[in-house]
């Protein structure tokens, strides 16, 4: 059986879809699973040994260059790539118009959420088979239930993200115990105050854990450098690729992060994780996994440093 999964973005959504690959292989040992994903997140499906081929798509970049000839040449190459193979099943677990249009480019029986279940109801018009899945369950569970319905199996209660971090060279990282602090996110209203990060890092240092601050964009790296410079033993990480970030997270004693895809990656790697929410409700899209994880806060809430330290006690001690 050959299956194509369409889940293009964002980072957290892509990570939430990893258990689908594990589920399918549990029930169909000989399944060959390909995955269509945004080019910037292609490293995530490649972490799962059950993914055969990753088909990158560049919708985000193409939208910014619609008048460029190269864009349409790339679109043509992509359409040829996704239609090259015939699939027994093409599964859109995203439920958006853009993902449904991508699904239509593939060859095979196209499946997805019905109009009442999809994030964008119009997406259901582009599938051959539609399935009802509750919107009141976590995103990970929604993905798993959709795949189970499309392939006629019952998903195991135990979930498995199925990934492990690659071995990466981290010569810049001292051989000490550390906690990764993920301060960067896509919106300013999702940020946690810098003073809170400083206070948290001081408490962690007193317990024998150095703080490591990653950062991607220039403002994020500047924030990481600013925080690390004010804290003894703290480290501002260099610019890292997704696989390198996975390696950093996997070796951490714990991770504390705001509403960002990397917090979900930490949970997928089974690293104890505390996620901080200040602008969104974590009930349906918060960190979720089989290992230790905690979601703190919610809309218009600023979790205290004390609440984060309390949440970390089971894994770091008093």
From TrEMBL:
Reactions catalysed, as given in the entry: an alpha-Kdo-(2->4)-alpha-Kdo-(2->6)-lipid A + ADP-L-glycero-beta-D-manno-heptose = an L-alpha-D-Hep-(1->5)-[alpha-Kdo-(2->4)]-alpha-Kdo-(2->6)-lipid A + ADP + H(+)
Gene3D superfamilies referenced in this protein's UniProt entry, alphabetically: Glycogen Phosphorylase B
Domain of life of the organism encoding this protein: Bacteria
Pfam families (UniProt xref): Glyco_transf_9
Membrane topology designation: Peripheral membrane protein
Ribonucleoprotein recorded as keyword: no
Keyword field: Cell inner membrane, Cell membrane, Glycosyltransferase, Lipopolysaccharide biosynthesis, Membrane, Transferase
UniProt-listed Enzyme Commission number(s): 2.4.99.23
Entry's Gene Ontology molecular function annotations: ADP-heptose-lipopolysaccharide heptosyltransferase activity
One biological process term in Gene Ontology: lipopolysaccharide core region biosynthetic process
Xref: CDD domains: GT9_LPS_heptosyltransferase (cd03789)
Subcellular location: Cell inner membrane
A Gene Ontology term for the protein's cellular component: plasma membrane
Keyword Cytoplasm attributed: no
Family: Belongs to the glycosyltransferase 9 family.
Record protein name field: Lipopolysaccharide heptosyltransferase 1
